[in-house]
Every structure is written in C-alpha cells, then in structure tokens.
Amino acid sequence: MWKTVLRRIMIMIPEVIILSLLVFLLAKAMPGDPFTGSINPKSDPAQLHHLMEMNGLYDPWYQQYWNWVVHLFHGNLGNSYQYQEPVTRLIGSRAVNTIWLALLTTVLTYCFALPMGMFAAKHEGKLPDNIVRIYTYVTYSIPFFVVLVIGIWIFGYVLGWFPTTGSVSATANPGLPTAGSHLYHILLPSILGALFGTVNVVQYLRSEVIDAKRSDYVRTARSKGVPEKDIYKHHIFRNSLLPIAAFAGYSITGLLNGSIFTETVFSYPGMGLLFINSINYRDYTVITALVLIYGILNLLGTLLSDIILSIVDPRIRIE
C-alpha cells in the first residue's frame, strides 16, 4: 500500500509543475498591476515604474517564473504587495482559521447526513423519507451564497444568536476564552456549510441503504433470525458507507478549497477571503501561492479518498 502511495506522490510532481506554470502565466495575464492605485491615486508614474522594475515585473515571464521556482524551493513564496509581509507567514496565519472551519464543517456534515440518510432509507416511501427528500431537493436547488445570506439574516440579525463577522471577539482574553470565542464565531458558518453539504451524502447513503436492504446477504441474515437493529448496524450501514468513503477525501480538501463563499460572506479571515482580496489588489505572489496550494489539495484529495476507501472496505487494498 505504501509503495503505491509513494508512486502516486511521484506522479503528482509533474502535475504540480504543470499546474504551477499555468497558474503563474494566468496570474501574469491579469490586467493591471499591484501598485497602481494602491499607494496613491495621484502617484507619480515614475515612482510606479521604479516599483515595477524593482520587483522584476518588467522581466520576461520565463525569468520571473524561474526566480519564483527557485525561491519556492527555498521555502520563500515572495512578499505580498498588499500586506507587505512574507506570503508564507500571511497564508500560514490564515490557513489555521480555514482548517478549523473546514474541520468543524466536515464533522457536522457527517453528523447530520448519516442519521438523515439512514432514517430516510429505513422509512422508504413514508412521511419521514419524503421530508428528507424534500429537504435535499430544496437545499440542492438553492445557491450556497443564498443559504449563507439567509442564515446570517435569521440567526445573526433577527435572532442575534451568532456573530456575523470576524473569527474572534476583540474583547476575548488570551487562552481558553479566545478558543471559545473562535468556536462561537465559526459555529454558524460551519452549521450552514454542513446543512448545504449534507445533500450528496444523504442521497448517496439513502440509495445505498435501499439497495442493501434488498440484497441476498440481508435476506439471509433475516432468515437466520438476526435482529433488525444488528442487520442495519453490521450489514447494511457498513456496506452502504463505501461510496461515501470514496468521496471523503474530496469533501475534506474541497472544504479547504471551497471556503471562499463562506469566508467572503462572513468576512472570516481565512484563505478564501485572502484569495478574493489578492485578486482585487492584483497581489500576484499571493494568488499564485494560493492557487498552487488549492491544486495540490485536490491532488491529495484523490489519494486520501483511495486510502480511506481501502480502510473502510477490507476487500479493497491499494496494490
């Protein structure tokens, strides 16, 4: 198994190289530059020319790419033009917030989806099943940003249960109070993201459980007098988890990549909001670094899904 994992990682290397080249060229193809209007709208063109030349933005694209790759191998992603600090430090400080948000959203997604899918399939064709199916259809048809805006309006402004911006209260003391404040701030976006993310999991699990209920091994277990509770727990549920496990890696890395809407709507200081701001300010160093990270996460998601699937199903092994 580990030989295959290593081989997959080796295959990722040329893919990452091609990805980095495409990302770099697309970032350079964006109109505008990181300095015009960011210093002073009335700045002297000679000053802007000097800044562009000093940062190597007039060099040929291949020279700029080579310099970027050399710095990358030394752990240096350059400096942010907008924030005036190293990109590695800037992304590192934002990545912690995004990871906590993605982790809580993932946990809540499966805590909501697994019972709902099992409950709907167990009562196939009855009122509970119809309610869950209506919920999935309605949720699937509504754009995610609309769910976020409605959630902020109801739970943030009308009911006032949760904060609607930031990652921690300005009045929180260091230590445990800060952790509690951070959890309080990410609870609403995590719940909304989890409710939206349950749709695919619920539909997959419901279909798999319904198919498993009609399978031969379930009929055999019932004929032997195995209690219905044990049949669902040991036979139906475990086998129904296989397609969900296959997408687990994608869902985890997808949340790290797809937090842009959530972080933008909630003004949450994570990688998603940083990515939007870097595009607005033409902060090329941050754009290329973040897109490269997102691409690597997608590649790792494929590998992670295979590993999780091999752990859940003993019949499947990565050879």
Automatic annotation (TrEMBL):
Domain (ABC transmembrane type-1) ranges: 95-305
- Entry's InterPro entries? BPD_transp_1_N, MetI-like, MetI-like_sf
Bilayer topology term: Multi-pass membrane protein
Keyword line: Cell membrane, Membrane, Transmembrane, Transmembrane helix, Transport
A GO BP entry is: transmembrane transport
Any coiled-coil regions, as ranges = none
**Transmembrane residues, as ranges?**
99-121, 142-162, 182-205, 241-266, 286-312
Keyword Cell membrane attached? yes
Its GO CC terms are: plasma membrane
The cellular location(s) given in this protein's UniProt record come to: Cell membrane
Q: Which Pfam families match?
A: BPD_transp_1, BPD_transp_1_N
The source's domain of life comes to Bacteria
Which coarse location class describes where this protein primarily resides?
membrane
Q: Which family does it belong to?
A: Belongs to the binding-protein-dependent transport system permease family.
| PANTHER family linked to this entry | DIPEPTIDE TRANSPORT SYSTEM PERMEASE PROTEIN DPPB-RELATED
This protein is called what?
A: ABC-type dipeptide oligopeptide nickel transport system, permease component
